[in-house]
Amino acid sequence: MPGTEFSLIDRYFAHHVHQHGGHDDVVLGIGDDAAVLRVPAGHELVVTTDTMVAGVHFPASATAEDIGYKLLAVNLSDLAAMGAVPRWASLALTLPGVDEDWLTGFCQGLFGLADAYNVALVGGDTTRGPLTLSITLHGLVPEGQALRRDGARAGDAIYVSGRLGDAGLALQHELGNMNVPGIAEILPRLHRPMPRVALGQALRGVASAMIDISDGLLADLGHILEASGVGARLELEALPLSAAVQAITDSGDWSLPLAGGDDYELCFSVPAERQADLQERLSGLDISVTRIGQVEVEAGLRCLDARGEYYTPPGMGYEHFSGIETEGLS
Fold this sequence. Notes:
Layout: H1 5-12, E1 26-28, E2 36-37, E3 43-53, H2 64-82, E4 85-95, H3 100-116, E5 120-128, E6 132-142, E7 157-161, H4 166-174, H5 183-191, H6 197-202, E8 209-212, H7 217-228, E9 231-235, H8 243-249, H9 255-259, E10 266-270, H10 275-282, E11 289-296, E12 300-304, E13 310-311
Parallel strand pairs: 4-5, 9-12
Antiparallel strand pairs: 1-2, 3-6, 4-6, 7-10, 7-11, 8-10, 9-11, 12-13
Helix pairs in contact: 2-3, 4-5
């Protein structure tokens, strides 16, 4: 690998932390053995890590700029699901070699989104090997106000933000499995998902439970139900869909909006007594939110079609280790 790890950091990454005004909470950033950060009084630290591997998390058609953007976006989506304010990131890159054009594009995508959310890069690591990218993102939430998965109760309404299934459909197109008319309209939903950070913060004190949809609605809502010890009923006809996805569900195939994955929308539950508060919180946000079902006492997730008949999905969503032995993994 030409140059050294330190010259790579200096050239592409070290300067970025200094571009952020208002980050007096970074006591010590890039350039030492570890970062030193100041957590404001009355707040709790929220931490998430995501990894993207070439050939697993992005297709060959993804540009370096798209990859940099999405790497941060999926972590921002995790913080959004907790109601947190993003603050600091550390970046770990495993690169097969130094491709200056690729690194320039990657940094444009990553730091363009970081600037939009005032995220400071405070550390990380670079190594040589198969292309693997990881970010650890830190955020802040007022004490006791983090949104969790275990608060849903029977009678709560279930909502999702945005639309479901577009990213999964775009991926099928990119992989050559189908030809999607008007692909340009939905392709950004795969490569440039919009993290719902403002919505997550607005739902503090209103939502009883929340999660971001990364592995598919069924799988991720299932995590809420399991953590909360409840079940739910979904109304398939209520799911928010683009015309392209609707054309497929009209044939009776609901796999894209239910299990396609990569939506990075928020799924959350709201008690009946907080419905008015929900509408008030949404009034200042430019985002659609759709009620798609209700939490029930009986365990399990039941999907009903327009005729009130039960629909049995072919699968629950994306699972990294499906079909292989996972004993010992956590």
